[in-house]
Amino acid sequence: MTGLNQQLQARKNAAIPDGIGITCDFYAERALNAEMWDVEGRRFIDFAAGIAVANTGHRHPRIVAAIRAQLDAFTHTAFQVAPYGSYIELAERINRLTPGGQPKKTAFFTTGAEALENAVKIARAATGRSGVVAFSGAFHGRTFMGMALTGKVTPYKQAFGPLPAEVYHIPFPNPLEGITTQDSLRALDLLFKADISPTRVAAIVIEPIQGEGGFNVAPTELLQALRERCDAHGIVLVADEVQTGFARTGKMFAIEHSGVTPDLITMAKSLAGGMPLSGVCGRADLMDAAPRGALGGTYAGNPLAIAAALAVLDVIDEENLIARADVLGQRLKQALTRLAHPRMAEIRGLGAMVAAEFRHPDGRPDPETVTTIQRRALDRGLVLLSCGAYGQVLRFLFPLTIPDGLLEEGLAILKEAMA
Ligand code: PMP
Question: How far apart are CA 313 and CA 166, in angstroms?
Fold first, then answer.
């Protein structure tokens, strides 16, 4: 690192707290679709998409135009003070797009963590219960309830207790760790026997594919069994689609792969293609349970972000990004299979939400190989992200609008980085 990047790095170290961890050692100046350029004019291929935010690419012209038009109208009135129709239009579209034929309502917020906070508030208000069950390895955000729900201690929770009470974790199925769906369900049944009566549980929260946890796909039998238990005990089933949403997995929402209808869905990230926007969509009777004035936030449903989200939905539709996710994911899986890195223990995922897990020959997780590949790729101009409980998983999150040539170029760099 030299010149401008180095200067910014020194200023960052002096001015920004260490608690904000940063993947890349360059500073962004410009981005377009699946490429980024740094302050020294160097170009990078983006296989991270701002952590699954730019499914529709950086600065898609449709989305930029929508934001610009809104910018010329108004940027903020606070929906709770002077509401605007675009918020309603987006809610109507989300209500139609999410699975399940029952009447639905949607509320908008700003971050993914806030969506999770509000899903728990809504579930508690609707059920009059307090318990919440989540999964080990899950990631649900950095706010207090987000941390409590998150199933990974380091670095997210260890320095920050006490966390909200009555949050319980059960294991997420993981073939490489020898954890089956039956193990997860046994743990849930045991939890109901040993720790909390199911009649005191407000919600079960699950990512249909764990994102930060390692792109672990929830087996359909698990989701079906959770649905059954939630129905039997009056528990609200929450699908956290913050990372899996908006065409990434070859469906609009990943839960659709299972055919299971959750009661609430949390969404954020690619909803607004880079503008800060999140939402909770779900059964109208549940969504209406919170008292008037108890939901919302000053910036919640910001008009610029809403305008971007409406354009995102148009782009997903017009450019067939749901089908495109499958094509891109297939190509990536084939390329990873061909690379056949000796430490690659598994290639997994749905649609274009694909990851490769690295393990030592004796089965131990191998984050060192992941870090080496990531660094070698970055040196060659390709941005990659890791995930997994030990950082032992490489995840791929390129924009679904990535042109074929750029994908191939990125995969060629990946090959060099893995050599
Ligand atoms: N849930 C999931 C599944 C996530 O992947 C994330 C972010 N990685 C969050 C919640 C939190 O979102 P945010 O960082 O916008 O608060």
Answer: 37
201 bridge partner residues: 131
pLDDT of residue 408: 98
Domain of 39 in residue numbering reads as 3-48+320-418
Q: What is the pLDDT of residues 71-111, one digit of tens each?
A: 999 999 999 999 999 999 999 999 999 999 999 999 999 99
Among 318, 353, 382, identify where a domain stops.
318
Domain-located, residue 373: yes
Q: Are residues 112 and 81 in the same domain?
A: yes
- Check the CA dihedral 241-372-175-336 and report its sign: positive
- pLDDT value at position 276? 98
Cβ 358 vs Cβ 345: under 8 Å: yes
Q: Which of 139, 240, 265 to mutate to test the pocket of ligand 1 (most atoms within 8 A of CB)?
A: 139
Q: H or E segment at 267?
A: strand 264-267
Per the structure, the count of domains in the chain is: 2
Residue 150 alpha carbon to ligand 1 centre in Å: 10
Place of tokens 């899996």: 244
Rounded (5°) CA angle 270-401-344:
85
C-alpha dist (Å) from residue 177 to 169, 174, 308, 363, 387: 17, 5, 41, 9, 16
Q: What does the buried/exposed string (b/e) look like for 374-397 if buried means 16 or more CB atoms within 10 Å of the residue's CB?
A: bebbbeebbbbbbbbbbbbbbbbb
Q: Would you call 395 helix, strand, or coil by DSSP? A: strand
Same domain, 408 and 384: yes
The CB of 111 under 6 Å from ligand 1? The reply is yes
